[in-house]
Design brief:
heterodimer, A: alpha+beta, two-stranded antiparallel ribbon, 4 helices, 20% helix, extended, B: mainly beta, Porin
């Protein structure tokens, strides 16, 4: 950013410092920093054979008036791109006379459930 | 500078004490509020899901088909030999080395030209100055592979922090010709970087032995901890880097070991000067965890007794808090031996808190700092100013000519901050930054610089290679009860 630290962007094109992003080789070492100046990837990958636990909270308001038993339906979903990428790239248009919504719906429909498990929470 | 602070003392005696005290209280209160909001943001702010999912929402994708745009050709570098940079077409076979590596040499020359007309009316120093100034950054890049390359750079219109300039108006007159050129052909950048595993693939065909160690050697710009700890535009150094380490459950850790033996510039009380006796060795790490990125760096600078040796360190956390971004850094300097002007004990706390308003690309930021004692960076280039440049555009030098920062960027026993709003228009081809900021020196042992100001920067892209930058600021110094004004118009051409 021109100031204010960093922010997340869908596309790795840093448009903050000036209004004309211009791709040229980095003029400083990319090896020593492991990345170019002005952009980086916050690595969140899961290494082979590693595990990670996620915490989810369900507020009491949502459960008020309901009676158990409760279950959790857990899915591991793989999708070709995040849907918000479509919004970022739509200014250059799409093939086959498609609308952004048609592309986004196609992306979601093409998502694959790799693993699914139903767990009894009682 | 000493004249400036003598003026401060003289004027302070003639001032209405209660008036000054009132302003001091206001500045201290405002800066502490900014600091508190910024530092405690993780506790007081919770992201709210404000997305509207209805049919009329601005988030909804359009049903209108969008045909493929007629994309313009890529803007080529001014010289391009070998494979085109980000071009299309068939790659040539390349050259197979005895080590097993395949090199596909490609050379390109590129750079930027900056020309500005700019002026200050400085009520503090009593100097009015209007000038034209220019800067030309020219680089050559020889790719051997995508990871091995040689970079050479020149800055033929500036040297030692002085730029080729034409004085249009000066009151009082300054003791130099109207036109002063700083023409030079010195090499400002020349380094080779690569990856040992890529240069000698035969050593480990199956990538099992961890030879993917990066290196860089030569004269190169360096910056660590956002330029707070080290910010050099040209330093002679060699460094080794190992990435993709999985230590202590971290997702990824990068470790860099660096030794710099020449062209080390060090900050004194106000000016960054070359220190021929200095060399430095540093260990720099960056670790990604699922919630944040942590940087930990430590540097030892060895120098003679005149400038003094010192130990420098930095620790930072860069993270998201809901839909908010926060970057918090602590950097510190510790003299080894006697304290000198280059080498003082101090700690600087620096925080940047920011967010993007919904349905926009705009950016709101709140930056704050607290300098304990007199922090000194391990090394700073002649045009890099002080360590507070990242606080806001009011604190940053423009890196061209004699147009200084609106607010002093030295952190000696000071507290302050800035609040800014960056707005984008016309598909980000125009942008406007509005900013207000201030600083207060809380200890009378050091030069008193208590000031506040406001500034704006408007940038417009024109064509495929040009940018027009319009800057302006006004600041008020409460010590001397004088104001400063500045404005500039810059044209930047990308090659």
């Amino acid at each position: 950013m021109v100031r204010g630290g960093e922010r997340e962007q869908v596309l790795a094109l840093n448009y903050s410092p000036d209004p004309l992003p211009f791709l040229r080789p980095s003029t400083r070492s990319t090896v020593l920093l492991g990345r170019p100046v002005g952009a980086r990837k916050h690595r969140l990958t899961l290494p082979p054979l590693a595990g990670r636990w996620a915490k989810y909270k369900v507020s009491a308001d949502v459960l008020r008036g309901t009676i158990g038993p409760y279950t959790a339906n857990i899915k591991l979903v793989a999708q070709m791109i995040p849907v918000n990428l479509v919004a970022e790239i739509q200014s250059v248009g799409f093939d086959y006379f498609m609308s952004p919504r048609a592309v986004a719906e196609g992306v979601v429909q093409g998502a694959q459930v790799l693993q699914e498990r139903q767990i009894d929470l009682n | 500078m000493s004249q400036r602070y003598n003026r401060f003392s003289a004027s302070t005696k003639s001032r209405d004490g209660s008036y000054l005290a009132r302003w001091r209280v206001l500045i201290v209160a405002a800066t502490f509020v900014v600091l508190a909001i910024s530092l405690l943001s993780s506790r007081v702010v919770r992201a709210q899901d404000e997305h509207d999912q209805t049919e009329n929402s601005a988030n909804r994708f359009s049903d209108e088909p969008i045909p493929l745009a007629d994309l313009p050709k890529r803007p080529r570098p001014i010289i391009e030999l070998g494979e085109p940079f980000l071009g299309t077409g068939t790659l040539h076979q390349g050259i197979r080395l005895p080590t097993g590596a395949v090199w596909q040499p490609a050379f390109m020359a590129f750079g930027t030209i900056r020309m500005a007309t700019q002026g200050n009316s400085d009520g503090i120093s009593g100097q009015d100055l209007l000038e034209g100034a220019a800067r030309f950054d020219l680089f050559g890049n020889l790719y051997l592979t995508s990871s091995e390359r040689v970079v050479i750079g020149f800055r033929p219109l500036d040297q030692n922090g002085q730029f080729t300039r034409f004085t249009l108006h000066s009151d009082p007159e300054i003791a130099e010709d109207d036109f002063v050129d700083e023409l030079n052909f010195g090499i400002r950048t020349l380094f080779f970087e690569g990856d040992i595993g890529e240069i000698f693939p035969k050593l480990d065909w199956y990538d099992r032995r961890g030879f993917d160690i990066g290196f860089s050697v030569g004269r190169q710009p360096l910056s660590f901890q956002d330029g707070l700890l080290l910010n050099e535009d040209a330093i002679d150094a060699v460094g080794l880097t190992k990435t993709n380490l999985k230590w202590f459950g971290a997702v990824n850790t990068r470790v860099t070991l660096l030794y710099a033996w020449g062209d080390v510039d060090r900050p004194t009380d106000r000016i960054n000067r070359g220190d021929k006796s200095a060399s430095l060795v540093g260990l720099f790490t960056e670790t990604d965890t699922p919630k944040q990125t942590v940087e930990f760096d430590v540097i030892y600078v060895s120098a003679d007794k005149i400038s003094g040796s010192g130990l420098f360190g930095g620790l930072s956390s860069i993270r998201r808090i809901g839909r908010f971004n926060n970057t918090f850094r602590v950097v510190a300097s510790f003299p080894v031996g006697d304290e000198t002007a280059y080498n003082r004990q101090g700690v600087l706390l620096h925080n940047q808190f920011a967010w993007t308003p919904h349905h926009t690309h705009n950016y709101i930021y709140i930056s704050s700092f607290l300098g304990l004692n007199q922090f000194r960076s391990a090394a700073r280039g002649p045009a890099a100013g002080g360590p507070l440049g990242q606080t806001g555009i009011l604190f940053a030098a423009v890196g061209l000519g004699r147009y200084g920062a609106a607010l002093d960027n030295n952190a000696d026993k000071a507290v302050g901050g800035a609040i800014g709003y960056q707005m984008f228009f016309d598909h980000t081809r125009k942008q406007l930054v509005l900013e207000a900021g201030g600083r207060y020196t809380y200890d009378s042992d050091v030069a008193q610089i208590n000031a506040a100001g406001g500034g704006a920067r408007y940038q417009i892209a024109f064509g495929r290679r040009g940018v027009v930058v319009i800057d302006g600021f006004a600041s008020y110094d409460f010590e001397v009860t004088k104001a400063r004004f500045g404005g500039r118009l810059e044209v930047l051409i990308k090659l």
